[in-house]
Design a protein that fits this description.
Helices cover 67% and strands 3% of the residues. With 956 residues, it is mainly α. Among the domains are: 11-130 and 192-273, 3-Layer(aba) Sandwich (Rossmann fold); 136-184 and 677-855, Tetratricopeptide repeat domain (Serine Threonine Protein Phosphatase 5, Tetratricopeptide repeat, Alpha Horseshoe); 279-342; 863-956, no CATH class. The protein has a five-stranded parallel sheet with strand order 2-3-4-1-5, with helices on both faces. The chain has a two-stranded antiparallel sheet with strand order 6-7. The longest helix is centred in the middle third of the chain and has 22 residues, at 413-434.
Length: 956
């Protein structure tokens, strides 16, 4: 622009402008920080400090000093971020805001963004099913695995395919995985907040590789510390991963750090107490603001008492004489009133006062608060010395705002009511607009809706405290049903209204609710307090009991939870969610019929409740009613196509029914919605394992372990099982041992490791593991039977029969256990007992070729094998459904041995060995051949030659 086009300012005006912008005072504190920035954080002699705590009373200039420190850090090449009470109501909000600011300076923080997005999805997801841990396999799992795997039993004596022919092995695998999810979270699908913190620390490490410093400023610590104190100490002590030495943290608050909690870090804290300005600093600031008249300076010195905020406000009023400064009453009120009176433009003065009624301001709130003709003053207001804030939202300094609010409430009560109702109505309209396209269950988790709900609450309480109290406490019931961050924000809004109105009832409730929200169990304490309010409606009271019940349920207090749900239903029998939650509690406790009844009632009251449909479907699934389960789960998915839990649960229902391909399809669809869901990954891994896709199972289970460390012990156990079934025994032992190390009372993993030892011929180790497992779970029939099998294979037949008998006492009709005891009886020459067991087993599994083989063998060893030649012919030449390659080779070997005396049996033995049978299969085969070797005919020689060949080949 040319010189003629604009009016030039004089040099003197520029000097005065720069003087006004200059930071006055706090030179020592500024030097302390800037000098620290040039030090080496790893120096052994004089290392840089990494933890500062600026403290002092309100108005002392803490935030101003932090802004100066932030600018100094940025000049030194640091990336910085700052949060205050407007950004922080929980750890996730704080880390998200810090990450956002860091990303603006250094580029996207992709790992943090992924973790935060997963956290958000998990918070917003409908509750996911988590099944209770059971003793042994559940009925539903056993029914499925017996039906699906029974036809695979081709080798007598549970040889080559022992793991597949043992239904309890597979069934307990299913149940163990379900129980494993409980370790990840107590009921329900819980978001992994620690995962977000780990990702945040990982991003700090990457930033520190590119920048000299990363400096995090945490302002108003007296507020933000309520949520971040423990998290920050954990972070600094590497609880979420190693924090680089060039991360610096600056706290600013009114109070000293808590002595006990900060004891370990006390020596590392650089304490920076801010005192009031000295007389020299006050004079310097006044001179910079153009106030130099001695009498005026003296008056400001007396009135401000050196408090920087008041010095600034008084200086900006440009007092011409000492009497312009002197005003009676409260010092702050006097300074603020003087400042307001100094604003000569009536519209500007009205704007300043009107906007003081809003705890937070943006342009929309500003426009709703001020007269239409003042809407051009937004930029002017933001430039006032008591207005601060980052981004779109601004706020008055708390000291200034409190004074202006007090003056307006006392001087114009009706104007106070009108202004607050006007703002409340504006927020109500914006809240209604935010509800468009937002289902009711998601409102409290929507930031925009929540902000308007809270601000509306504040303004309505300010306008009519006594009239509005009950209605807002009823809203508080629903706030308590959300996460703790929402509850704290609601409580802060209520407390702000109580302070600003000075209403006795509000102040009493504010104290009670703040005490509750800082308790060990905030939601439970908060709801307990609300239930003492006699004016709560029936609906609100029922919701309070319901939320209490849900909280108790999620923290494993089952009986107390059921009692709360009973109270909720007694208070309001038409409360659908109370019925649904009680049904879910019954489902968890394996009360299948009660669960279905309650959930059916809930669905009668609310037919389109997808969560209740999915929960009822899961209840049917656990009771073994798979068709009804899939009907309900499909209906839930039709209502909510992106319902990942329902897809996962339907996948489980298909898997329980033996439809593994369909199970994998549903679980894959669930993972498409939530790619980082460790539970769904592990479940799909188990489905692949059930289907015999061991490599794919291991891939999924490994991904689940990598994603979710708290899930490690369960997924490690499953991966160990997959390695065992794939014949990779060393890897199986490694995974199962790691799972046991993480969870020493993990009975299922001990039994699985015992089975792995048994299959590799290490019978003493197998017995030791089975015994340890049975110590934890004495009624595990599969572990008892497997220990009996290990004793039998080691030649300890009496101990084998003892264990197998105990297992049969638990499961009298289990064909596999009867089979095992029948073999043990036969091998000890107790043929009548063997026949009784095998006949009972055949009654349960009449088409099992392995059992039929044992029956013919029993007849053969009691007479001449040739006498059973017709039975052998029929058995060995009969078609077998879904044969395995190992089973086919086994039967071919005995076909040659028994039915083709002119053929060379060693060729069939070579073919059998070419399939790579495991130690377990070879051991059982050698037992059979030994029994045939004892007969007195030509068969004995052939059996001995075959046995000798196998021994030679397998000992090489």
């Amino acid at each position: 622009m040319s010189g003629a086009g604009r009016q030039r300012r004089s040099r003197g005006e520029l000097i005065r402008q720069r003087a006004r912008a200059q930071f006055v005072g706090r030179r020592a504190q500024l030097s302390l920080f800037t000098e620290n920035l040039v030090k080496d954080p790893e120096s052994e002699g004089d290392p840089a400090e990494f933890l500062f705590h600026v403290r002092g009373v309100g108005g002392i200039g803490k935030s101003t000093l932090l802004r100066q420190w932030q600018q100094a850090a940025q000049r030194a090449g640091a990336v910085t971020a700052v949060v205050d009470e407007n950004d922080v109501h929980d750890v996730h909000q704080a880390s998200a805001e810090l990450a956002r600011q860091l990303a603006e300076q250094s580029g996207p923080l992709k790992e943090f963004d992924r973790a935060a997005e997963q956290y958000r999805r998990e918070q917003e997801a409908a509750p996911e099913p988590v099944l209770a841990e059971s003793n042994g396999a559940s009925v539903s799992s056993r029914m499925v695995t017996q039906a699906a795997l029974g036809a695979a039993s081709l080798i007598p004596g549970a040889g080559v395919v022992t793991a597949m022919t043992n239904p309890d092995t597979a069934a307990q695998g299913l149940d163990r995985l379900r129980a494993g999810v409980r370790a990840r979270a107590p009921r329900g699908h819980r978001a992994d907040a620690a995962g977000v913190s780990r990702a945040f620390v990982a991003e700090l490490a990457r930033l520190c590789e590119r920048h000299r410093w990363v400096v995090l400023f945490l302002d108003t610590w007296e507020q933000t510390g309520r949520y971040l104190d423990g998290w920050l100490r954990d972070l600094l002590e590497d609880a979420f991963g190693p924090v680089p030495v060039n991360v610096m943290v600056v706290l600013a608050g009114r109070d000293e750090l808590a002595e006990r909690e900060w004891a370990l870090l006390r020596a590392q804290v650089v304490d920076v107490p801010l005192e009031v300005f000295t007389e020299a600093e006050t004079r310097t600031l006044l001179a910079a603001r153009g106030v130099s008249e001695p009498s005026v300076v003296e008056a400001v010195l007396q009135l401000s008492m050196g408090l920087p905020l008041l010095v600034e406000l008084l200086a900006l009023t440009r007092p011409g004489a000492a009497e312009d400064v002197d005003a009676g009453g409260d010092v702050v009120d006097a300074a603020v009133e003087r400042f307001v009176q100094w604003i000569t433009d009536p519209l500007q003065r009205e704007t300043v006062l009107a906007c003081a009624l809003a705890p937070q301001l943006n342009e929309d709130v500003f426009a709703a608060a001020v007269p239409p003709e003042a809407r051009e003053l937004w930029g002017w207001l933001c430039g006032q010395p008591f207005v601060s804030g980052r981004g779109d939202f601004k706020q008055y300094h708390a000291v200034v705002r409190a004074s202006m609010v007090h003056q307006q409430r006392t001087r114009s009560p009706q104007g106070w009511i009108t202004a607050h109702l006007q703002l409340a109505d504006a927020h109500a309209a914006w809240r209604t607009d935010a509800e468009q396209g937002l289902v009711q269950a998601r409102r409290w988790s929507d930031p925009r809706w929540l902000r308007h709900r809270l601000d509306e609450t504040y303004h309505r309480l300010c306008a009519h405290p006594s009239l509005q109290l009950t209605e807002e406490l009823e809203q508080a019931v629903h706030a308590a049903g959300q996460d703790t961050a929402v509850l704290r924000q609601w409580t802060d809004a209520f407390e702000q209204a109580a302070r600003d109105t000075a209403d006795p009832a509000l102040l009493t409730w504010a104290d009670r609710l703040q005490d509750a929200v800082t308790a060990e169990e905030p939601a439970l304490a908060f709801l307990t307090a609300l239930l003492t309010h006699r004016q709560l409606s029936i609906t609100a009271r029922s919701w309070a009991y319901t939320y209490r019940g849900r909280y108790l349920y999620l923290t494993d207090h089952d009986e107390e939870a059921l009692a709360e749900f009973d109270r909720a239903i007694a208070t309001d029998p038409d409360h659908a969610r109370a019925w649904a939650y009680r049904g879910d509690a019954h489902r968890w406790l394996n009360h299948a019929d009660e669960a279905v009844n309650d959930l059916t009632t809930a669905l009668r009251l609310s037919p389109n409740d997808a969560w209740a449909l999915a929960s009822r479907g899961d209840s049917h699934r656990e009771a073994g009613r798979y068709d009804q389960a899939i009907t309900d789960l499909t209906a839930a998915i039709d209502l909510h196509p992106a319902y990942a839990w329902a897809l996962g649960s339907r996948g489980q229902a298909h898997r329980d029914a033996g439809r593994y391909d369909w199970a994998i399809t549903d679980l894959t669809a669930a993972l498409h919605l939530h790619p980082d869901d460790a539970w769904a990954l592990a479940s799909r891994g188990e489905a692949h394992c059930d289907a015999g896709h061991y490599d794919q199972a291991i891939t999924d289970l490994t991904a689940a372990i990598d994603l979710h460390p708290t899930f490690t012990w369960a997924a490690l156990g499953s991966r160990g099982q997959a390695h065992r079934l794939a014949g990779r025994y060393d890897q199986a032992i490694t995974d199962l041992t790691a799972a046991i190390d993480l969870h020493p009372t993990y009975a299922w993993a001990l039994a699985q490791r015992g089975e792995t030892h048994r299959e590799t011929g290490q019978y003493d180790r197998a017995v030791a593991d089975f015994t340890a497992s049975l110590h934890l779970d004495p009624d595990d029939a599969w572990a008892l039977a497997s220990r009996g099998q290990a004793h039998r294979q080691a030649g300890r037949y009496d101990q084998a029969i003892t264990d197998l008998t105990a297992a049969i006492d638990l499961h009298p009709d289990d064909a596999w256990i009867l089979h095992q005891r029948g073999v043990a009886h036969r091998q000890t020459g107790r043929y009548s007992q063997a026949r009784e067991d095998l006949e009972r087993a055949v009654e349960s599994e009449p088409s099992d070729p392995g059992l039929l083989f044992e029956m013919v063998l029993l007849d053969a060893v009691g007479s001449e094998p040739a006498a059973c030649i017709d039975q052998w012919t029929q058995l060995l030449n009969s078609p077998v459904e879904t044969p395995t390659q190992d089973g086919t080779r086994f039967f071919d070997l005995f076909r040659v041995l028994l039915l083709e005396p002119g053929s060379d049996v060693t060729d069939a033995a070579e073919v059998f060995l070419s399939g790579g049978p495991d130690h377990d299969a070879i051991t059982d085969l050698l037992h059979y051949l030994a029994e045939f070797s004892a007969v007195e005919d030509g068969l004995a020689d052939r059996a001995r030659r075959c046995r000798q060949l196998i021994v030679e080949r397998t000992s090489e």
